[in-house]
Design a protein that fits this description.
heterodimer, A: mainly alpha, 4 helices, B: alpha+beta, 62% helix, 9% strand
Chain lengths: 102, 536
Amino acid sequence: MPEAPFLIAVFALAYAGMALAALGLDRHWRDLVDPRRPASRRQVRCLRAGAIACGLAALAPALACDGMAIGLLLWISALTAGALAVGATLAIHTVMMAKPRA
Amino acid sequence: MSKQEKGKGGLRALLLWPHTWMGVTLGGLLVLIFFMGSLSVFAPEIDRWMMPATRLPAPTAPISLDATMRPLLEQLQAPALAQGGRAQGWMVEMPEERVPVAWLRVRTTQGMEQALVTADGRRLPPPQTLGASGFFYPLHYCLLLRPGFVGYWIVALAAVAMLAGLVSGVVVHARLFADFFTFRPRARPQRALLDLHNLLGVLALPFHLMITFTGVVIVLPIVLPSGVSVLYDGNLTRFYNEAVAAYDRPAAGVAAPLLPLDPLVVRAKAMWQEGGGKEARVAQVTVVHPGDAAAYVRVTRFNDDRVTLHNQPIVFDGVTGALLLRGAPGPVVAAQRFMAGLHVVHFDHWTLRWLYFLQGLAGAVLIATGLLYWLEKRRARHGQGLAGWRVVAATTCATTTGLVIATLAMMAANRLIPATLAGRMGEEVGVFFLVWVGTAVHAAVHLRRHPQPPWAGHAWAIAGLAALCVVANWVTTGDTPWRAWALDRHAVLGVDAGLAVTVLLAVAAARRLGAARRRQAAPVTGGQLLKGANNA
């Protein structure tokens, strides 16, 4: 399966990009990094830049693997999949960290 | 509050009303369309599961039409010719990887005959089932209501409502970016449902906009008929013939021998490759007026390497072999065929097929969570005594878990009713609709006594039926996972795996629902339930 490394790269970059984007949001920053202090402006700017860079970088292996039309389709779908995976990761994290209910 | 913010708040309030009521009225229908559409992505695989005789290896060697298919076609039309009929046309749908069997169709003045044959020309018994491509798929695009295109109109209306719902949903969403990834499964049900609704609505928005829009574009000539009625006197067939470059001429009435077909196919392949690219495979070969002096042969290509659905028909004279027509789409048809291809994901890309399937199911869950949120909110405001509330609650239950139950019941019936029974095709459809109506009645009766629709009961039913399907498949066909793996029957393996995942998710949902009910705590985690239920 020669396209496997490309596909892995697309999904890994999409997930990484969405994870950085999530960290750039106050709620998830407090959940994951520092519950007391919000991220500094610079940190948020860096996270967002990283998110955009990863998201755009995911386009390259998608186009290399499948060409223009199907590649774009794969890229957009992979971004959605990455975002949903990040949402699921955060939800699982919150449930695991929560104190067990009485 | 600045004037601008105030304006936005006004727009939000303005759009919330149509968003809500469109969802409540058309939500059930849209869940059906999204669920069946998702199943249709894997229709060939479900077909293999439901038609065990067609679980064959993909054809490897090129198939000779003259050696294998032509004798069968002549055999099919022989009885009609013996009765004094005249042959009108042959059609061969060539086998491919996902559909490793050929369909032969023969039209004579006496009627239609068809046969299912293997790539090496062995005739198979009729499958006695509509399968996914003959039932789930038409249910998706026309609700099986073909006369007068009624079903197409209803589905297109629902699709336009869906587009409006998606866009208005984004406008209505108060904290689009702050809640971008937020899902709190342990929050109270209303909160968790809205989280899931927002999450799926926003994150899968590109796919949902694309799939809904391209869905409408596919049936555009039907739902925007004024162009066709003005220019073609309402003759849709003539319009399609011209648009997709079909060819037609009447029979001459003089007998003449038909040329061998294989050389024509070779020529067609060479012509497709002229434009560059990979060697294209043949999808269909049609012979019109076989044995007549005016016979012609139409060859279309398979589009497994590109998005468009345009099959570039090439038409040859069946007696002289002269090229009669080479179909190239005009700009509008090319755009329409491209969008149709985007919608049906027929090209060879398993990752995208799975992403389509999952995002389609996400669409079904998106709509269902919207309905459940409305139900929770209504109950909080008005109590559940209202008859209208119970009607929507029962309908929601029937169109979500009930639909999954009916689908699984049909698949179980397919494995349990012997294929030798003449009427099995109809019986399967009957089982589907009876069970579906049954779930609606059950939900309605249940709601007279209980505050909630029978979610846990339905989840157990889904788990039981999915398990029954898997076991029935093993017992009736002998295709256990080990055997399916050894024989490379990936379609069977995949459908069984999907059913197994459904069992696991449904059991987990049912247990959680049961525990929640026993605790008498927050009533339903409908979101989780649906997440599981829709994974059939």
